[in-house]
From TrEMBL:
It comes from Xanthomonas campestris pv. phaseoli. The gene is xpsM. The keyword Transmembrane applies. The keyword Transmembrane applies. This is Protein xpsM. The lineage of its organism: Bacteria, Pseudomonadati, Pseudomonadota, Gammaproteobacteria, Lysobacterales. The chain crosses the membrane at residues 16-38.
C-alpha cells in the first residue's frame, strides 16, 4: 500500500492565498453590487416603516384624547363667556364711550338725581398698547359722599366686562351739590380703565373733536 506523499508547503500557501482572494472578491462584489442596490434600500424601508408606526401611534393617541380636549375647550369658552374680561367694543373710541356710560350708570345707581354724588369731569385718555393688550382709560373726577363713593367703586370693579380703577386719589372737601346740602364730602380723582380684545382697533382718540361735557349739576350751578 502506497503512502500519500505530503503536500508541499508552497501548494498549501497557494490554496490559502486563493481562498483569501476569493473572499476578497466576494466582499468587493457585495459592497459594489448587493449593498447599495439591495441592503441600503431595505434598511431605508425599515426606517420608514418604523417612522410610520410611531406616527400612527401618535395619531391614535391624539384621536383618543380629542373628545376630552374638545370638552375642555368648550368649558373654557363657556367660562370666558360667563366672565368676559375684555371690553366688547371694537375700537378705542367706542370703548371710551362705553366706559363713560358705565360710570354714569354707577353714579346714578349710587345717587339717583345726583343728590349726593356727581361727575365733575371725565376725559378719555389715549389708548396704551405697550403690553400685549390695549388699555383704554377715562380720567374721572367725582364729588361724592363716602357711602356713595364705595357704591360707585364696587359697581365699577365688580361688573362685567372687568374694569379697573387706577391712580385713585381721595380728598376731603366742602362742596354743595344742591343749595339744601351742607357740603361735606369727598373730591375723588381716578382712572377708569379696561382692555380691548386682541384685534380691536387701537387708533388714537380725537379728544378735540369730542370734548368731555360738564355734569348737569355743574351746569345748573353755573352763573
Amino acid at each position: 500500500m502506497r503512502r500519500r506523499r505530503p503536500m508541499p508547503r508552497s501548494v498549501k500557501r497557494d490554496r490559502w492565498i486563493a481562498l483569501g482572494l476569493l473572499l476578497l472578491v466576494i466582499g468587493v462584489a457585495y459592497l459594489v453590487l448587493v449593498h447599495p442596490w439591495f441592503t441600503q434600500p431595505m434598511i431605508a424601508v425599515q426606517d420608514d416603516l418604523q417612522a410610520l408606526r410611531e406616527r400612527e401611534l401618535r395619531v391614535r393617541v391624539q384621536l383618543q384624547q380629542a373628545p376630552e380636549v374638545s370638552k375642555r375647550l368648550r368649558q373654557a369658552r363657556q367660562t370666558l363667556e360667563s366672565r368676559p374680561g375684555f371690553l366688547p367694543e371694537t375700537s378705542a373710541e367706542l370703548a371710551s364711550a362705553g366706559l363713560v356710560q358705565r360710570l354714569e350708570r354707577a353714579v346714578v345707581e349710587a345717587s339717583p338725581g345726583n343728590r349726593s354724588c356727581a361727575i365733575s369731569n371725565r376725559s378719555p385718555l389715549q389708548p396704551e398698547s405697550k403690553n400685549r393688550f390695549t388699555r383704554v382709560a377715562v380720567q374721572v373726577r367725582l364729588r361724592c359722599g363716602t357711602p356713595e363713593l364705595a357704591s360707585v367703586l364696587y359697581s365699577l370693579e365688580n361688573g362685567t366686562p372687568r374694569l379697573f380703577v387706577d391712580n385713585l386719589n381721595v380728598m376731603a372737601q366742602r362742596y354743595q351739590l344742591s343749595p339744601n346740602e351742607s357740603g361735606n364730602g369727598l373730591d375723588i380723582a381716578f382712572e377708569l380703565a379696561g382692555y380691548l380684545r386682541p384685534g380691536a382697533s387701537a387708533a388714537p382718540l380725537n379728544n378735540e373733536a369730542a370734548p368731555a361735557a360738564p355734569n348737569a349739576a355743574e351746569a345748573s350751578n353755573a352763573p
